[in-house]
Design a protein that fits this description.
Layout (H helix, E strand, L loop, with lengths): L5 E6 L9 H9 L2 H12 L5 H10 L6 H8 L8 H10 L3 E9 H10 L6 E10 L2 E5 L14 H7 L6 E6 L2 H7 L4 E4 L1 H9 L5 E2 L3 H13 L7 H13 L1
Parallel strand pairs: 1-2, 1-5, 2-3, 5-6, 6-7
Antiparallel strand pairs: 3-4
Helix pairs in contact: 2-3, 5-10
The structure holds magnesium ion (MG).
The site of magnesium ion (MG) has 8 residues, from loops.
Length: 239
Amino acid sequence: MSEKVFKIFVDFDGTISKEDVGEAIFRHFGDKGKVDSIISLLLNDEITARECWLMLCRSVDSIDEETLNQFVDKIEVDHTFKNLENYCAKNKIEMYVLSDGFDFYINRIFGREKLTHLQVYSNKLLIKDRNLIPEFPYLDNSCSSSANCKRNHIINHSSDDDFTVFIGDGNSDKYTSQFCDFIFAKNDLLRYCERERITYFPFSNFDDVVLKIDQLRSKKRLKKRHQAELKRREVYLTE
Ligand SMILES: [Mg+2]
């Protein structure tokens, strides 16, 4: 019998990092009133994630790299993330970090945490003339809630036979997670799954995730989530 292949996709902000770094940067360096109203426009689906990032970047008057790095250096990661990383390495499970945040702080934080070998897909952030300039190399207009279309990375890195796992917490995960067989959710994503009656596992840290994945891998019969298969098929048909 062939072995079950698992593919793991993990959100960064608020999932690996303890807080949403993107949001924290703009709340700290941007105009507080403006930032709040821009984020509520996104959460009410009145603007796309790309528009949200462009507006947030414009809300920051003037910034330099060193100041931003100092801010990022204070952000903590969930220390149990390393346990998932070890588990995947030991069991040769592919893991991808999918973020609708920015390479600027993810690279900095992963450098500090000795995690630069991880495969990461995110948006890009440049500082030019003291302005923040976002770039969106993985934009796909059919994914409005995430400027980095996380869905496409999942589809590109898994086959229909793989068991896909998504781990996340927020707005940019709501659409994407539905393409996976197993969803680990907390906070906004958890409430969304509840509301939409999407099957999920609640989690508070990555030790919960490792335990559950280990149980799933050892099951004799493991079913793929039918709704996720249908979602994937929709994408193939429209392309
Ligand atoms: Mg998040």
